[in-house]
Design a protein that fits this description.
With about 475 residues, the protein is α/β, with parallel strands linked by helices. The chain has 15 helices and 16 strands. The longest helix is centred in the middle third of the chain and has 26 residues. The protein starts with 8 loop residues before the first strand and ends in a 7-residue tail after the last helix. It binds 6-O-phosphono-beta-D-galactopyranose. The site of 6-O-phosphono-beta-D-galactopyranose has 16 residues, from loops.
């Protein structure tokens, strides 16, 4: 058999803070993602090194309006349906449901908004895949409790999960507990609301926060299965295998260590216990994680049903400090691989790396995978007649889909679906730009915030429609 399974979930993916806008509408509370500005301060703020807990006049905050999906979602979902989407991955903004984060009762207006979005999907037979937390943390939980460094976050998060699980229990089946959970190590403020204080052991703070998130994820999985045993709960990793620069054993060892930094999270979420290499690392690095006596059991008994991940590129590492030529990648830079081309943003293009990553993950976890992000960020030009010829995006996606099919058809990897990132143009998480576009649908808005917000179809729109209609058979 060389075809993808029937019922394969083709679709696209977005995140609330990068597309919704309406950041104070409908009773929504302020969140970390709202105070991460565009421009040169974005990275220091996202890293938690430059403290910003409210907005000021000197900065531009792209999440405030984004592409205003808050008011355009019906039109947008209709376009997704026109492409034949079977699935749409989007996130719920935590602070729409619990504006402060520690209230006893959810905000009805927020729940009603997402119910309407979900109903709109279901109207077209589109399966919603919901990310419960895509980087966002209500600001009040950051200023009052220190965000995920506090154990109290587990209760607030589980309460939030209960509210949405109960409300949508008959409408949504697929859920992801945390987007790119390993991002917490690289962008602690944007990824988890963490502010690292001067002189603090940053790793101690990050791994304590990671523990709290892992327990929260397991408890959410428990409640999910109690509320609806049919729910499918997934974890989510910013993936991409790390290659060794040479066959020197030192390089190979270093690449293994680098991969473990990421696998660590999924090892816990999927296998249900801390891996020994992590426990040894904590010992060595003097990291003392406070755990409650019941935590080991909670983690053990509530592992995820499937493994989802983002894949943009492979990574490269070397044990030799002389080898230092770097290039950009998803959030953190990597060594430049001379065998690969790169995007305009320096992200290297490696379709076979997707097959390698899929096989590595499937070998390790033996659970179904879901590719919930993949794509090419590029500058698009709108021609005078309104057309957008994005053949570079089609080429990128075509090669990745081929590699994905090889992993399924030749290697036997179980794969639930494929939702390319930013199926409609949205704000870049890494840079805050609009001109770094991923979509099949173009949105008229520029980096200065100007534009009509009008939506139009790119060439890739018609191409992807055919890909879906033929279940991935016609890729040219
Ligand atoms: C991932 C995030 C997304 C998304 C994507 C592309 O890290 O989960 O939110 O933005 O990367 O990255 P960027 O927007 O920086 O191009």
């Amino acid at each position: 058999m060389s075809r993808l399974p029937e019922g394969f979930l083709w679709g696209g993916a977005t995140a609330a803070n990068q597309c919704e806008g309406g950041y104070l509408e409908g009773g929504r509370g302020l969140a970390n993602v709202d105070v991460v500005p565009a421009g040169k301060d974005r990275f220091p703020v996202a890293e938690g090194k430059m403290v910003m807990t409210e907005c000021d006049d000197a900065h531009v905050y792209p999440s405030h309006e984004a592409i205003d999906m808050y008011h355009h979602y019906k039109e947008d979902i209709k376009l997704f349906a026109e492409m034949g989407f079977k699935c749409y991955r989007f996130s719920i903004a935590w602070s729409r449901i619990f504006p402060m984060g520690d209230e006893a009762e959810p905000n009805e207006e927020g729940l009603a908004f997402y119910e309407s979005m979900i109903d709109e999907c279901l109207k077209y037979g589109i399966e919603p895949l919901i990310t419960i937390c895509h980087f966002d943390v209500p600001m009040h939980l950051i200023t009052e409790y220190g965000s995920w460094r506090s154990r109290k976050m587990v209760d607030f998060y589980v309460r939030y999960c209960e509210a949405i699980f109960t409300r949508f229990k008959d409408k949504v089946k697929y859920w992801l507990t945390f987007n790119e959970i390993n991002m917490l190590l690289h962008l602690p403020f944007m990824g988890a609301g963490l502010l690292i204080k001067e002189g603090e052991n940053a790793d101690q703070v990050k791994y304590q926060a990671a523990h709290n998130e892992l327990v929260a994820s397991a408890l959410a999985t428990k409640r999910a299965h109690e509320i609806n045993p049919g729910f499918m709960i997934g974890c989510m990793l910013a993936a991409g295998n790390t290659y060794a620069n040479t066959c020197a054993p030192q390089d190979v060892w270093k690449s293994m260590e680098k991969d473990r930094e990421n696998y660590f999270f999924i090892d816990v979420q999927s296998r249900g216990a801390y891996p020994n290499y992590a426990l040894k690392m904590f010992e060595r690095e003097n990291i003392n994680i406070q755990m409650e006596p019941q935590d080991a059991q909670i983690l053990k008994e509530n592992t995820v049903d499937f493994i989802s991940f983002s894949y943009y590129s492979s990574r490269l590492t070397s044990a030799d400090p002389q080898v230092s030529q770097k290039t950009e990648g998803n959030v953190f830079a990597t060594l430049k691989n001379p065998y690969l081309e790169a995007s305009e943003w320096g992200w290297q293009i490696d379709p076979l790396g997707l097959r390698i990553t899929m096989n590595a993950m499937y070998d390790r976890y033996q659970k179904p995978l879901f590719i919930v992000e993949n794509g090419l960020g590029a500058v698009d030009t709108k021609e005078e007649d309104g057309s957008i010829h994005d053949e570079y995006r089609i080429a990128y996606l075509r090669e990745h889909i081929k590699a994905m099919k090889d992993a399924v058809n030749i290697d036997g990897v179980e794969l639930l679906g494929y939702t390319p990132w930013g199926c409609i143009d949205l704000v870049s998480a890494g840079t805050g730009e609009m001109r770094k576009r991923y979509g099949f649908i173009y949105v008229d808005k520029d980096d200065e915030g100007k534009g009509t917000l009008e939506r139009s179809r790119k060439d890739s729109f018609e191409w992807y429609k055919r890909v879906i209609a033929t279940n991935g058979e016609e890729l040219d």
